[in-house]
Amino acid sequence: MSESIFEYAPAPESRSVVDIRPSYGLFIDGAFTEGHGEPFKTIDPATEDTLAEIACADSADVDRAVVAARAAFERVWGPMPGRERAKYLFRIARIIQERARELAVLESVDNGKPIRESRDVDVPLVAAYFFYYAGWADKLEHAGFGADPGPVGVAGQIIPWNFPLLMLAWKIAPALACGNTVVLKPAETTPLTALVFADICRQADLPAGVVNIVTGAGETGRVLAAHPGVDKVAFTGSTEVGKQIARAVAGSRKRLTLELGGKAANIVFEDAPLDQAVEGVVNGIFFNQGQVCCAGSRLLVQESIAEELLERLKARMATLRVGDPLDKNTDVGAINSAAQLAKIRELAQAGEDEGAARWSPACVLPQRGFWFAPTVFTGVAQSHRIAREEIFGPVLSVLTFRTPAEAVEKANNTPYGLSAGVWTDKGSRMLWMAQRLRAGVVWANTFNKFDPASPFGGYKESGFGREGGRHGLEAYLNV
Amino acid sequence: MTVMRDDALSGAELRAFLQGLPGVDQVGAEERAARLGTRSIKASAKAEAIDLAISMVDLTTLEGADTAGKVRALCAKAVRPDPDDSSVPRVAAVCVYPDLVEVAVRALAGSGVGVASVATAFPSGRAPLEARLVDTRAAVAAGAGEIDMVIDRGAFLAGDYLKVFEEIVAVREACGGAHLKVILETGELVTYDNVRRASWLAMRAGADFIKTSTGKVSVAATLPVTLVMLEAVRDFRAVTGRQVGVKPAGGIRTTKDALRYLVLVNETVGPDWLSPRWFRLGASSLLNDLLMQRRKLATGVYSGPDYFTVD
């Protein structure tokens, strides 16, 4: 009888669907152009191989992009009837679906996330957001923001590296639907899918200047946010940078939305559907290597089931497959950058030093690239750094509680407030919890679920403004 | 969780126990099963998995029109699934109606392939208990090593758990040394909570295997139902130390389906269940697809269906 462990043979997704050019320019006014900053390289975090050289936009380049966006806003996109704008957005959404495999592979190569996620989560959601906001473009007067809400103007948008294309969609789709034009700066470590998106805009015959992509590092973002020609700044990223942007924008007429960090509590009650709760905890913290602003990085489990839940959680974690992001069976891929890996390591070390118990399943990590094994800390106290600071990695801190009131108190006892998860079979308790949790999203018996129709955003240091849904239109309408 | 002593079990105790089991969230369970369904099993892993799947098949014929000749043909297939290739493993068992057990036993003597028989007024189970027990004893007397019984779904849905429990215990006794597979008919239980309760009920009553379906109801085996049953056998072993097998049956027709079930077993209960001793696939047409894919993998080309025997 076969008792051998059922090892899966490698099942790599083919890289042949992507054609990465040796170098990329900036996308300004409908054309790829040179940048005048010092070019930089983007690498594959799973291998540390260089993928391409990327142009860096200096302040003159950003200025060109803003001027192009302004011209497109005034002459073409702003005056265009909503039903016409919708056609372009629908077209973009369809092209994204057609080029889904290419985008998924490229996203995994540049970001390090498993192809299963880029294929089944990121790219389908990207298309869904464009479809959703395409539908709003000719119905804005029915959105509840007045009889004839107009666009804001030129939006300067700065996005992070954890969901490069999805964050682009969250920013660009509502902005365009409302009649704004955009200058978008992708993250330094993950510019490639945004540059393919630029190509998709051309393929869709989007008028020149409506979407401009300026690549670069933090300095490019600073210049963009501070540019006087920008009417609205939208930023998703770290709380630290968010505060800098808020300071830069303060006192100007610019409008601002920020979607920042989080330290979400995933709260499991003793009457929870246990096996699904374990799945939800795993999905909450190991999805995208935990590099998710709304990751369920604190597990609050009721004392009466803590031991049993942890046992199940560890057994489940032992089945996570860590490795090549392009392997279709990989669950946990590479950390996005050396800098991020160093940050995760530092915080994990702090967890050990402060006396929490660290555990990871046995797993062989590749030699090259940036890797961190799925990790759980037990015996964590509220005062530990790993319970308070955002780790942005596959590291879970486990705390316990005895009563619902204590769960709420602990869950809310954080400077952040982006998301929370509650696991219970009792509907009344679910509602009671949801009313008291100060978090932009409360997931009931699930976690990390996104839908274009649902608003997303934070309380407290997790930022302000909402993206997604009808609420997401407000940031891009002159209301 | 604690399991009470099963002698002197009262209906109220049993009900409290079954209703106290952790619930199953339908959306979560279906999502987990669907996600495991996207696993990509290639090359050497696929070859190993196909052979494992073949060795787990309960080759089944349960038609009113079954004849001794048909059963003998099926038995020949069970022992040597691919006449052109002796490296193909034999299947786990042949599953027939009680009156054909004798034919199967004779045809399979010394082959290592087991003889399973459905009993207890399969598939509805709507006969007096005494008749169901007679049915069972007859199948065992004729040489069946495995009995696939059906539970009284009506009693289960009405909340009369003790009746179902006692009937399983009675059939268990009637089985003597034969292995007992208890068919829950999950398509009629409808909810995953019911599937989990019925699984625990059957295991506590002495089932050696829990089986999803008769194959005679339109919703037969599904991945999420099997997932819930696998979680139940895993938890049952953790509490009692006794390992119980799982058999999805009905609707499993392709190699792709079969591999999905193996992935499910591998990633929820682990390799302890990855053998015909603990996991079976109840199917009739699946075997030929497994053989076809096996040959494709070995030769690189597909053979037509005419190259595999239709039995």
UniProtKB/TrEMBL annotation, chain A:
<comment type="similarity">
    <text>Belongs to the aldehyde dehydrogenase family.</text>
</comment>
<dbReference type="Pfam" id="PF00171">
    <property type="entry name" value="Aldedh"/>
</dbReference>
<dbReference type="InterPro" id="IPR016161">
    <property type="entry name" value="Ald_DH/histidinol_DH"/>
</dbReference>
<dbReference type="GO" id="GO:0016620">
    <property type="term" value="F:oxidoreductase activity, acting on the aldehyde or oxo group of donors, NAD or NADP as acceptor"/>
</dbReference>
<feature type="active site">
    <location>
        <position position="259"/>
    </location>
</feature>
<keyword id="KW-0560">Oxidoreductase</keyword>
<dbReference type="InterPro" id="IPR016163">
    <property type="entry name" value="Ald_DH_C"/>
</dbReference>
<dbReference type="InterPro" id="IPR015590">
    <property type="entry name" value="Aldehyde_DH_dom"/>
</dbReference>
<dbReference type="InterPro" id="IPR016160">
    <property type="entry name" value="Ald_DH_CS_CYS"/>
</dbReference>
<dbReference type="InterPro" id="IPR029510">
    <property type="entry name" value="Ald_DH_CS_GLU"/>
</dbReference>
<protein>
    <submittedName>
        <fullName>Acyl-CoA reductase</fullName>
    </submittedName>
</protein>
<feature type="domain" description="Aldehyde dehydrogenase">
    <location>
        <begin position="33"/>
        <end position="479"/>
    </location>
</feature>
<dbReference type="InterPro" id="IPR016162">
    <property type="entry name" value="Ald_DH_N"/>
</dbReference>
TrEMBL record, chain B:
<dbReference type="InterPro" id="IPR013785">
    <property type="entry name" value="Aldolase_TIM"/>
</dbReference>
<comment type="pathway">
    <text>Carbohydrate degradation; 2-deoxy-D-ribose 1-phosphate degradation; D-glyceraldehyde 3-phosphate and acetaldehyde from 2-deoxy-alpha-D-ribose 1-phosphate: step 2/2.</text>
</comment>
<dbReference type="Pfam" id="PF01791">
    <property type="entry name" value="DeoC"/>
</dbReference>
<protein>
    <recommendedName>
        <fullName>Deoxyribose-phosphate aldolase</fullName>
        <ecNumber>4.1.2.4</ecNumber>
    </recommendedName>
</protein>
<dbReference type="GO" id="GO:0009264">
    <property type="term" value="P:deoxyribonucleotide catabolic process"/>
</dbReference>
<keyword id="KW-0456">Lyase</keyword>
<comment type="similarity">
    <text>Belongs to the DeoC/FbaB aldolase family. DeoC type 2 subfamily.</text>
</comment>
<dbReference type="InterPro" id="IPR002915">
    <property type="entry name" value="DeoC/FbaB/LacD_aldolase"/>
</dbReference>
<dbReference type="GO" id="GO:0016052">
    <property type="term" value="P:carbohydrate catabolic process"/>
</dbReference>
<dbReference type="GO" id="GO:0004139">
    <property type="term" value="F:deoxyribose-phosphate aldolase activity"/>
</dbReference>
<dbReference type="GO" id="GO:0005737">
    <property type="term" value="C:cytoplasm"/>
</dbReference>
<dbReference type="InterPro" id="IPR011343">
    <property type="entry name" value="DeoC"/>
</dbReference>
<keyword id="KW-0704">Schiff base</keyword>
